[in-house]
Amino acid sequence: MAKSLVGKVFRVPPPPPTPSKPLEEPTVATPNTKTTSDIRTESTIEPPTGMPALAETFGEQLVSTVKHGQQLSLDAAQSWVKAASVLPMTDMPDILGIPAMAGMEAATTYVFDVASDLLSAQREYVLKLASALLPEKTL
After folding, report:
1. Is 0.70 topped by the overall pTM?
2. Could you point out which of 11, 23, 58, 101 has its C-alpha 20 to 30 Å from the C-alpha of 131?
3. How far apart are CA 51 and CA 126, in angstroms?
4. % of the chain exceeding 70 in pLDDT
């Protein structure tokens, strides 16, 4: 039989003490990691794009991280296909009234073309909206 917990007293430990000094900004570990003070002094120099150096560095690190994740998932997919290729597979039967699907590469290219057009239209819209809301340069 299960024991009843009715009427039992449980003690909850107190929360940990708050730090007496303020927390420092976290640093992302990369081969070119710089200290926060290095980044602050560098961020006063505007790169040609008009973005602060810190934002540009963040963008570069984000793209690098995404590409690394993509490579890992690609390696995993290739390993899975290689392992599954030894299993017996039957062809899918044709379904009446449904045309054959385009190749995977053609379908992927089409979807990314549509996404690219959509992103371009969205960018145009946001730039027009920003210029309408902020007609003067705010820097």
Report:
1. no
2. 58
3. 17
4. 59
